[in-house]
Amino acid sequence: MKKLFLFVSLFHSVLSFCQDQTYYLEGTLGKSKIYMSISVYKSDKETNVNATYFYQNSLKDIKLEAKLKDGNYTFYFKPGDVVSEKFYLKKSTSNNFDGFWYDAKEKQQPVHLAPINFANYKSNLKLQFEEDKLNFVKFKFLEFKKIKTTTYNNKEFVWYSEKHCDSDFFRLGNNFPEKNKATINPILEEIHAQRTLTQLGCSSSFAYSDGKGIESTATINFLNTNLIGFETFDSWYCGGAHPDFGSSGFLIDLNNGRQYEIDDIIAFDKSVTTEKKDNFSAFSKYRNDYFAPKLLELVTSIEHFTKPESDDDCDYTNLEYWDFVSWSYTEKGITFTPYFARVSRACEEPFLVPFEKLQKYKNPKFPYDLK
């Protein structure tokens, strides 16, 4: 999932231009309520424009090709190089956009858009979704409904789906203590909302989104009176050259809601740090100098890796694949999945290190035994 969040962040970035202005708009297309973002990027030689919009009753992004000439904005959606819809809009001095929309048969509908008042769309979305402020709008209209219940270690889990797309996730069920439910379910709801927004934003200019661009699973792997561990796996294609996939592990304290990262749990050296954002240099140094070598040594002692004879085979002896691994906390130990470049992504598979091999490396600040 963390790979997926990184993908979403990069997907919305335009690295070769400076973003001069983004307009976040709401209004009507005919009788339909729509929301749109229009971004204008300028360099010394040219001006580029892109736009995305969605209908309130759908929430799925439609990505438009765009042109700006003499103050007139023209937007196209043309999968297979056939124009299926287009906008002709003019911006006023108050940043309203007015004009017309046309379908493939040139049927015309009036369009009126005005700047969004985001005070009407407050939410507690995490930072990675703030880059596209339209997520605050979508968040307001998400609708979750119960679809099934399952059990794990004799505890009930209630699964929910979201109305507008394929996005299923769980909450703690009835036989958990009320304190646990009050602490953990809001966290699980937020994770579900984030995953849903990623799904709704998974679109391209090649085809209309059906809300199924990301195939997702969530698997509960650990549960005791203090901790819940689960793993998410996502396989996605949202346009571009290639599909991709990735997994993320979660370990959450049932008592206080703290979410533990792998470096909160395991410390191969006293220099261990989880401060990726504020001190990435120290974090990267620890991962390169201590985490990767020791982890590779541990996994090799179990799996007996050897250098492959062919470059076409997966080289699990290469230290660089073990510094930024995916992980999952399970009943038998922690699984670690090395990170390969996209061309070798099929080499990614989890390797289990039992708790007894990890016990002496437990981070002193982690409040529970590894078991």
Topology summary:
Elements: H1 2-11, E1 18-29, E2 32-42, E3 47-55, E4 62-69, E5 72-77, E6 85-91, E7 97-103, E8 108-115, H2 134-141, E9 144-152, E10 155-162, E11 165-172, H3 178-200, E12 214-223, E13 227-236, E14 244-253, E15 259-260, H4 262-265, H5 280-303, E16 326-329, E17 333-337, E18 351-354, H6 355-358
Antiparallel strand pairs: 1-2, 1-8, 2-3, 3-4, 4-5, 5-6, 6-7, 7-8, 9-10, 10-11, 12-13, 13-14, 14-15, 16-17, 17-18
Would you give an account of this structure?
This protein has helices at residues 2-11, 134-141, 178-200, 262-265, 280-303, 355-358; strands at 18-29, 32-42, 47-55, 62-69, 72-77, 85-91, 97-103, 108-115, 144-152, 155-162, 165-172, 214-223, 227-236, 244-253, 259-260, 326-329, 333-337, 351-354. The chain is an alpha+beta fold and 371 residues long. An 8-stranded antiparallel beta barrel has the order 1-2-3-4-5-6-7-8. The chain is globular, with a radius of gyration of 24 Å. Residues 5-17 have low confidence and may be disordered.
